[in-house]
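Agenda item 2: NDP complex prediction
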Amino acid sequence: MRVGIIGYGTIGTDVAGFIQRGEAGEASLAAVLVRKGLTCESGPAGKSGKPLFTASFNEFMEQAPDLVVECAGHSAVAAYGERVLRTADFMVVSAGALADEDLHGRLMKTARENGHRLVVPSAAIAGLDRIAAASVGYMEEVSLITRKPPKAWIGTFVEDKLNLEGLTEPVCVFEGPARESAKLFPESVNVSAALSLAGIGFDRTTVKVFVDPGITSNRHQVVARGKFGELQLEVGNTPSAANPKTGYIVAMSVIHNLRKLSGPFMIGL
Ligand SMILES: NC(=O)C1=CN([C@@H]2O[C@H](COP(=O)(O)OP(=O)(O)OC[C@H]3O[C@@H](n4cnc5c(N)ncnc54)[C@H](OP(=O)(O)O)[C@@H]3O)[C@@H](O)[C@H]2O)C=CC1
Ligand SMILES: O=C([O-])CC(=O)C(=O)O
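Presented output:
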């Protein structure tokens, strides 16, 4: 399976590294779409050699990826999604972009018409296998509490509202439906979108978001109840050195999914 990556930041770099070290099952790296010129010293190459690093979307798609992994943010999902799905599967890490109903609908239509798949990895959250299975029956509740340390909020709108360095107690910066949280925190609460898509949708999934000076990991708590029974889980993601908003687990989850999609064995669905 030939893989293309959009975005060579924290997640994209890790995903590319895993693939190039042969840790992604049958997947090989075909091309990386970057924003400005080349960011990799290995330089340009073609279909058969090293992966191509390019700022041209057309050149990127000419490498004939079977699957493209988006690791670049909400705007990249909107900019490239439909064009990718005409010829390849599309794995969306910035799942919050799908809170835009119109965009989500267009991507689904393009995928269906062209026989490709829109794939959302679990990334920073857990338990989506069970939530998705549970949603086959009636569900009364799916809720999420996301907490991250102050440094994870630098560069977000929260920085303008709070003195992040001076916090001594957790502060709730959002409470409401997942559709709003996914749009309000494009770089840091994509987990609410993945949870919504697995379960009862963006409008019934409820979310609280905290800046918490008492923790060092990015923490997500999920509670769900329904015909299946109930689920309570909490994950603590180690923030990556390059971007404290993002856990290392996100790239690892992408690789787990590449192994599943490219190989003969699937588990953790
Ligand atoms: N589903 C989940 O659980 C999670 C999802 N995410 C999502 O993943 C995204 C990426 O995270 P992360 O890697 O940590 O972020 P980074 O900011 O470290 O990296 C993003 C990279 O994408 C590049 N980029 C942006 N737009 C484009 C474009 N149009 N074409 C090519 N490259 C582009 C940026 O380039 P430049 O430097 O030029 O801006 C940057 O190099 C986040 O914005 C978030 O939406 C993150 C964590 C968890
Ligand atoms: O990595 C995390 O813990 C979650 C995250 O940034 C997101 O959901 O966008």
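Discussion summary: The two ends are 20 Å apart (CA to CA).
Owner for follow-up: CH.
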